[in-house]
Amino acid sequence: MTIKPFEEKGVSNYCAEDWHVILLGLSIGEGTVGLTVTSVGEPKKLFAPTVMTFVLDGKPFETTRLPVKPVHGKDPGKWFGLVQGRVVGPDELAPGSHTLSVTVENDPDPEYAETYTDTRQFFIDAAGTGVCT
Question: What is the pTM of this model?
Answer without folding.
Answer: 0.86
